[in-house]
Each structure stands twice: as C-alpha cells, then as structure tokens.
Design goal:
Length: 281
C-alpha cells in the first residue's frame, strides 16, 4: 500500500508514520516543505530516509503534484494534511461540489464491534436520497472489512412522523435495489441508542451504522465521543473510486495509526477481489 501525505509537517503525523513503517503498513510519500519535514524528523530521531519526500512548499504546487501522482497510479491513497477541504475535489478527481462523502470508523472500548458513521456530503440540508446514498457508500467500505451484516440506525432529535416516513422510504428503496444485507432499524435518539433500557439500543440490536441528520451533527457527536471516551476514530473520505484520510479530523497518533490500519485492510481486500476476478477470466 502506497499513501501520499500532503503537507505532513506535524510531529504527531511524522512519528506515527515512523511507527507505521516499522509495522509494515505501507510505503509513504511525503509532499510538502522538504526542509521542514527533514528538520522535524531530525529533531525527533525519525529516519526520514524511510520516506519518499517531494519538495513542494507551496500549497497549490503540492496539490497539483499529488493529483498527478494519484492519476498516474504512483500511489494508492491520499492523506490530507492542513489544506482547505475545497482542494479535496481536485485531488480526488471529483467534478461536482459536495460529492465527496465520508465514513468514520469508530473503535469504541465499550462496544464489541466497530461503529460507522456515513455522510454522502458535507451539505447542511440533506434529504432521504442523500441518506440512502450514505448507507450504500458505507456498505461498500464495511464489506471490505469483512463485516457481512449492516444494521443501520437513523438518528433523530424528536423521532417525528417525518423521521419515521423518511426511514420507511429509505428502507423500501434499499429493498427495491436488492441490498438484502442492510437492515434499517427503527429511528431513535442518541440517548436511546446508548441506553440499556431502550428497545432499540446499540448493544442488543448490534447496530453498527449511524446516519445522522447531516455532516455537522456527525462531527458534534464524534467530538463528544472524544471528550468522554477513549475511542479511536478513522476518518475516511470517499470520492468516486478513491479513498483518502482526512488528517484534520484525526486527533493524535492513535487516530492516524487506526486510519492506516483501516486503509491497509481495505487495500488487501480490494487486491484479493481483483485477483479473484482475474482468476475467473
């Protein structure tokens, strides 16, 4: 697995990449201010010779370089450092604004399974079609992690008639599209989801996918988890057929390393699937 990191100047990123290299999680291409990267590596006893470093101190230059690197197949995935999200579309070759989705993979100590949160875009106003897309988007990623059954919960504030109607429409559309491995649970509030006394709680129903009202609501929930738990969270961007890591949504080395572990697993499963297709031919 070869990952290009754009503007990876932070010490936590470089230290984590050093650990990931020793764990044989992949090869890492660093695109940014080469002098700054090497100086930070030297100060913290990181062997920068383990990385391919390309000197692009200017932000736009780094973005164009990374776009060509990915387009020519010289890297499998991209990790975005501190660059504006508006540049994500350019690198991931997504033509329309708002068409980059995200799936957060959460390793919560109190749960025996991974928890996923999916958003089809970062728009504030989403409808049932956007939420359906978010579920299908997550399904593709979840299956690559060898999780066969998806139990999705629609998170609501008040559980109104409109929320129930939206949930039933999505359930019907997924059934019509033959997504038989996706079970849409009853819509519920976050408080009920984590309550042992609630009939549709996350523990009894093995709920592993949450669909929030929008991207902002998902970020608030994730930030709350970080405050009150020791959860590890991988923030995976999805644009077309490309996966990427959003480093701005990771908090420290544990999240970055977990993100790399998730991508490594996805990469292995994708290669296995490609090999099986070639074997059939």
């Amino acid at each position: 697995m070869n990952i290009a990191f754009i503007m990876p100047h932070e010490i936590s990123v470089l230290k984590t990449l050093d650990s990931a290299f020793r764990m044989n999680l992949g090869s890492f291409v660093l695109i940014g201010d080469k002098k700054r990267i090497m100086e930070n590596c030297f100060k913290h006893n990181i062997d920068y010779s383990r990385f391919a470093i390309y000197d692009c101190p200017d932000e736009l230059e780094a973005i164009d370089f990374c776009y060509e690197h990915l387009r020519k197949g010289k890297c499998d995935y991209v990790a975005f450092g501190k660059i504006p999200p508006s540049y994500f579309n350019r690198i991931m070759n997504v033509k329309e604004e708002g068409q980059i989705g995200s799936v957060d993979v959460i390793d919560l100590p109190s749960l025996r399974h991974y928890l996923f949160i999916s958003n089809s875009s970062r728009r504030l106003n989403v409808d049932f079609d956007d939420k359906k897309k978010a579920i299908i988007q997550a399904e593709g990623l979840i299956k690559t992690l060898n999780i066969k059954k998806i139990n999705a919960a629609m998170i609501t504030n008040l559980n109104t008639k409109t929320d129930v109607l939206e949930m039933n429409i999505i359930r019907m559309l997924l059934k019509d599209d033959k997504f038989h491995d996706i079970n849409i649970c009853e819509s519920c509030t976050l408080a009920a989801l984590f309550s042992a006394n609630a009939p549709n709680n996350i523990y009894l129903n093995n709920i592993n996918l949450l669909i929030m009202r929008n991207y902002e609501a998902a970020r608030i929930f994730i930030d709350t988890l970080r405050v009150f738990t020791e959860a590890k969270i991988a923030s995976i961007l999805i644009g077309g057929n490309n996966y990427a890591i959003d480093l701005s949504e990771t908090k420290g080395g544990a999240d970055i390393l977990f993100s790399l572990l998730v991508l490594n697993k996805i990469n292995k499963e994708k290669k296995k699937a490609s090999y099986q297709e070639l074997s059939v031919i």
